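Support reply, case 0932

Customer input (verbatim):
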Amino acid sequence: MNSDRGADRSVGGTVEWAVVGSDIGPLLLAATGDGLVSVVFHAGPPVRDKALGQLRARLGAEPVESPGSARLAEPIRQLAAYFAGSLREFSLALDWSLTSGFNRQVLRELAAGVPYGTVVGYGDLAQRVGQPGAAQAVGAAMGSNPLPVVVPCHRVVESDGGLGGFGGGLETKRRLLALEGVLPQPLF
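Our regenerated output:
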C-alpha cells in the first residue's frame, strides 16, 4: 500500500530511522506512520547527519533513531532478502512525501512497471508517463529519488546501453544490476 498523502499533508509526525548494513554499504532507512520515506546510500556519520538534517527540514519532525522499530522491521527484512537474492519485488508501504509532481509520477511508474532483472531507458520511461522528449527530466527524477533500491532507479539506463548516472555512484549501480542478473558479477 502506498500513501499519496505525502506532499499534501501537514507535517510533524514522527520519523524513525536506522542505519543497516548491506552488500553496497551502510543504508539509512527512515519511516513515518505512512511508510518508508527515505533510503540513503553510504550512510556513514557525515552522510547520515546531513540526511537527518534534510529529513528534519522537509518533514518538520525530529528523526528518532529506532533500529528495533516496528516501522522499520519490514523494510529491513525485505532489503536483507533482496540482497540475499530471495526477494525480487518489494511490498512495502511507501510515504511519497519527499517527491511530488512529475518526479513522483515517474518514480511510481518505475516502481510499478520496471521489474527485477530488467532495465528501461530514460526516454522510454518519459514516454511511459506521457512526456516523450523528457528524458533529461526523468534523469532529474532519478537523481532526486528518496527511495533508491526500493524504487529501483538503478534500472534506468541510457538508450545506447550506457549506465547513465546514479546518486549512489556507478559502482553501486553496477553491483545492483549484477545482483539482478542484468550485468555479469565482478570478477573480484
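We compared this against your earlier run and they match. Two observations from our side: The chain is about 35% helix and 15% strand. The beta strands are 2-3, 15-20, 27-32, 35-40, 63-65, 94-95, 120-121, 156-157. Please reopen the case if you see a mismatch on your end.
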